[in-house]
């Protein structure tokens, strides 16, 4: 079963974010708090959205996503920040079901893109996405500013 997250899911969502960060060998980067997630997901103007996969009343996985906008297409899209299925629930179709829900939302709302990133060493996830018919966008390089470089740029006076 796939359903939108509720405020009561926040502790489980945070737990899965930390599980995913550990899997991606980046647990030190997972700094989000329950309060931050609650504010981001359940404020009057949410910054992101979560769908939960459940099996027999147990949280099996989640996807966290937010809206993008394409200047070329002139419409919104979805950027899937995280897709995670707990190891004991893998192979039961939860990942596909979560992706299908995002595709359904895109179709229902007229969004024309569903995008995400995957680590280049994560072969099981790459195979999963390839199997769905996703196309690798290898001509684009992804950049990121965080922490001190971001602060330094924001403070520049030139």
From TrEMBL:
Key word Endoplasmic reticulum present: no
Stored InterPro entries: Acyl_CoA_acyltransferase, Diverse_Substrate_AcTransf, GNAT_dom
GO molecular function (one): acyltransferase activity
Protein source organism: Nonomuraea helvata
Coiled coil: none
EC number: 2.3.-.-
Protein name (record): GNAT family N-acetyltransferase
Protein keywords: Acyltransferase, Transferase
Lineage: Bacteria, Bacillati, Actinomycetota, Actinomycetes, Streptosporangiales
The keyword Acyltransferase appears for this protein: yes
Any single Pfam family the record assigns to this protein: Acetyltransf_1
N-acetyltransferase domain: residues covered: 1-155
Cited SUPFAM superfamilies: Acyl-CoA N-acyltransferases (Nat) (SSF55729)
């Amino acid at each position: 079963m796939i359903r939108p997250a509720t405020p009561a899911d926040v502790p489980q969502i945070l737990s899965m974010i930390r599980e995913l960060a550990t899997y991606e060998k980046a647990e030190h980067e997972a700094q989000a708090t329950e309060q931050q997630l609650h504010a981001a997901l359940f404020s009057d103007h949410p910054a992101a959205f979560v769908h939960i996969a459940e099996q027999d009343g147990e949280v099996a996985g989640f996807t966290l996503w937010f809206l993008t906008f394409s200047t070329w297409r002139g419409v919104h899209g979805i950027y899937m920040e995280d897709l995670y299925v707990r190891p004991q629930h893998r192979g039961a179709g939860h990942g596909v079901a979560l992706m299908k829900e995002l595709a359904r939302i895109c179709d229902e709302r007229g969004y024309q893109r569903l995008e995400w990133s995957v680590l280049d060493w994560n072969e099981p996830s790459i195979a999963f996405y390839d199997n769905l018919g996703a196309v690798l966008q290898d001509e684009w390089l992804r950049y990121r500013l965080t922490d001190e470089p971001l602060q330094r740029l924001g403070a520049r006076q030139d």
